[in-house]
Design goal:
16 helices; five-stranded mixed beta sheet; Alpha-Beta Plaits; 3 helical TM bundles of succinate and fumarate reductases; Ubiquitin-like (UB roll); 567 residues
């Protein structure tokens, strides 16, 4: 059984996978109608023999009942109706499918068991075409979309999933299209050839109709009970004892004990990332608990596993798993990418400051003071603007964000929206482009400079606090966004170290590994960094351009270190 939160979530996921396997084989069987009804019947005999084998058949119906019951139970336990659109879609589809599925199940499997009805493809297609074609097609699409949403957010945390997403996306589109084409084409051919043979007897209809009505009414009644329970619970929470939850920026909200921290954030329009929708299948909702951690329930084994995989500190918890009973002070650790779409205080999550893994670059001109002392001030401004313009273009074209200009120096951030791995590769690509731009600039200014301009570039990666310092009026994008923390200080130290190392580029081992480059001891140097007890492992390069071929290849394959040479 795949890992998935608590036992209820694990059972819901496991039962869903069983139902998906049944639906997938059923839909692929439909697709064979493109070829012929005979082929559909032949494969149907094999598929039916498997799924109607008593133990497998029992597992299938147990999975169906369990999946519906657990979905209703999860809905009943919700402390908030604020959800992402895809969560609403999955919930509503999941509730609609049983209502549409009951007539199909009773009309095939139940009549087969009660009356010995031979529910072959010829019989079923004759019954469905043309009067029930829309109902059947709608059911097929709803089942498939519901399954794809669940599979997507179950697999989205896997490192290989993003690479294979185009393949999975193609299959997710192809299966329902081929299935619809297959069963409709087969049914149409039977109808046109006059071979349609599908009628229920009066006895069968009289037996099936009240059962279908009773089950559907029971489902509607159960949904009504769940709805009343949820609404009553929400009303009760408004009048019961409340606790306070403090977020960055001195934002304090009141909430009744019971909901998870993620639900409290959503109820109060507090921006809070949650890729998996609060299922503990990712770590994007994690928060640092500044006060009140002792009163929380200890993390479950699954939560511990998720936090361990991301190297979280002891004071970090998943917001979707903790249910505050006393006052709490927290800080979300990941940015909200859709925050700009929300009104009020949630317009800009970076206004609070968020912790994120990024790559930081510092660039500086060597001996700029000596160069500027021999020039008129207007000439220095001209040279400097030309230099900063070219370097900034190289940074932005590589996917970076210019944080600030510090005299003749530049601080840039990479990986804000694409993640640390791609951010490190983009930072190295920017260094290559900057070397190229510097060569062009030196050619342009050759008649005006006593010697070519030289630069030093330092790059380091790690966690940093991103925020809009002194930018209260700025919202959205990356404008006025700056980074703070040890990662920034270390990157600055690396840029300064290029003077003593003698190369143009100094890259920490964290960047090197994240970019997927193969280590070469000939390139390694160790430098001391203030605040670190041990020396920092650094790769020093005379020319960033020697990495160009490595960065143009698949990051999973690494680089050919034999091409690299020490400065």
């Amino acid at each position: 059984m795949p890992k998935a939160g608590d036992w209820g979530q694990s059972l819901r996921l496991g039962s869903g996978l069983v139902l998906f396997a049944f639906a997938l084989t059923h839909f692929l069987n439909h697709a064979l109608g493109i070829v012929s009804v005979d082929l559909m019947e032949t494969v149907q005999d094999v598929r039916r023999g498997f799924w109607r084998f008593p133990p497998i058949n029992l597992l299938l119906y147990a999975a169906l009942i369990l999946h519906v019951v657990l979905a209703l139970w999860k809905t009943a336990r919700r402390a908030s109706l604020r959800m992402h659109w895809w969560e609403w879609a999955q919930l509503l589809l999941g509730l609609a499918i049983p209502y549409l599925l009951i007539p199909h199940v009773i009309g095939t499997r139940a009549l087969n068991a009660q009356f010995g009805l031979n529910d072959t493809y010829t019989f079923e297609l004759s019954v469905l075409w043309p009067g029930l074609a829309f109902d059947q097609s709608l059911l097929l699409v709803l089942v498939w979309v519901h399954a794809m949403i669940g599979l997507h957010f179950w697999l989205s945390g896997r490192p290989w999933y993003d690479r294979l997403l185009p393949v999975f996306g193609g299959l997710a589109l192809a299966v329902p299209l081929l299935s619809l084409w297959g069963w409709i084409e087969a049914a149409r051919r039977l109808h046109l050839a006059g071979e349609a043979d599908g009628r229920f007897t009066r006895e069968q209809l009289q037996w099936a109709a009240p059962i279908i009505e009773t089950i559907n009414m029971g489902l509607l009644g159960l949904l009504g009970v769940v709805a009343v329970f949820v609404l009553g619970r929400l009303a009760y929470q408004r009048i019961r004892r409340t606790i306070s939850v403090e977020y960055p920026g001195q934002i304090v909200v009141r909430a009744a004990p019971g909901p998870t921290l993620l639900e409290i954030s959503r109820i109060n329009d507090i921006p809070h990332t949650s890729v998996c929708g609060g299922r503990a299948r990712c770590s994007t909702c994690r928060v640092r608990v500044l006060e009140g951690a002792d009163a929380l329930e200890p993390p479950s084994e699954h939560e511990c596993d998720v936090l361990r995989r991301v190297g979280a500190d002891n004071d970090v918890r998943l917001a979707c798993q903790i249910r505050p009973r006393t006052d709490l002070n927290v800080r979300p650790l990941l940015p909200i990418r859709d925050a700009a779409l929300k009104p009020g205080r949630s317009v800009d999550a970076y206004h609070w400051g968020v912790e994120q893994q990024i790559a930081v670059m510092f660039v500086d001109i060597r001996n700029f003071t000596g160069i500027s002392e021999k020039r008129l001030s207007y000439d220095v401004v001209f040279f400097l603007n030309r230099y900063l313009e070219r370097m900034s273009t190289a940074i932005e074209d590589a996917g970076g964000h210019v944080d600030k200009y510090i005299g003749d120096g530049i601080m840039a951030l990479f990986g804000i929206s694409v993640g640390r791995k791609e951010g490190c590769r983009n930072a190295l690509r920017a260094a290559i482009a900057m070397e190229r731009e510097l060569q062009i600039l030196n050619q342009e200014l050759a008649d005006h400079l006593d010697e070519p301009l030289r630069i030093g570039i330092g790059i380091h990666a790690g966690p940093a606090i991103l925020g809009r310092i002194g930018a209260a009026g700025s919202h959205g994008g990356t404008g006025n966004l700056t980074a703070l923390g040890d990662t920034v200080n270390t990157a600055s130290r690396l840029e300064a170290a290029t003077k003593e190392l003698g190369g143009m580029l100094a890259v920490s081992s964290d960047v090197w590994r994240s970019a997927g480059l193969t280590e070469d001891e000939a390139l390694v140097r160790h430098i001391s960094v203030r605040g670190r007890e041990t020396a920092l492992k650094v790769f020093s390069l005379e020319s960033p351009s020697i990495l160009e071929d490595d960065l143009s290849s698949d990051p999973e394959t690494g680089s050919d270190a034999s091409r690299l040479r020490i400065a």
